[in-house]
Amino acid sequence: MIKHGFAFFLLFISISLFAQEEMVQSIYFDTNKSDVDLKQTTQMVDFIKKIDSTRIESIQIFGYCDDVGKDDYNRKLSTERANKVKSKIIDNGITNKIIVTIEGKGRILIEDDIVDNLPAVRSKNRRVDVVLNLKPLPKEDLKIPGVYPTFTKDNIVGDRIVLSDMLFERGSSVLTVKCKNELDKMAKLLNKYKNLHIEIQGHVCCTPPNHKEAIDKATKKRKLSQNRAESVYKYLISKKIAKDRLTFKGYGNTVSLGKSPELDRRVELVITKL
Asked: 5-138: which CATH architecture?
């Protein structure tokens, strides 16, 4: 069994003329436990205090459990874990004002076909994620070959359409108002270029290092990128785009733009046929 552990990773965000950083620290727990030991506390506080305090905009704390046990118990335990971590942070001089979210998310379901290394997978799900949201720093736009903001008559097969407002909330596959506005524009262009076929590609960000896919908070299933792509697929069909021109697929966290967690909470439209 994997005992208490500590891990963190740095994710970079770049949106338009700004770069925003999101830093995530994960603390792992034994089965049915919520205590944070001295070593983990020291590592966690050192991690936070190494960051320029003027750049920390907010802190979010999310607790999780493995899939063993009843929902009510795991919801309570995950909340207790999140609150224990919050207390340790405050006790060590981090102001409570910037902690904007303390949430126990309950158990993380495991796909039915996962049989190898099941104890290890469950141990990674017994955790608290401490998310530091940092204020943006100026940064130039990053241009990516083959990536465009809209369809044009000059597009070729393989071109990727990445829409600046086609972004999802964390853990959600629900289309926002901005998403729908962008898709309305795309539907008009798809009706204009009637020979154009696309694959709708869903993506996610901010997953633990051992998971390629993220959990959809609505379904509790680790199919978030697939659900995002399907949401766009269904919306375009509702706008009278023929089904045979559309396919959809979830890519998890495997196709990052290399810019930002926020920009990786996206759906791309990739041209497959002209």
From this structure: 2-Layer Sandwich (3.30)
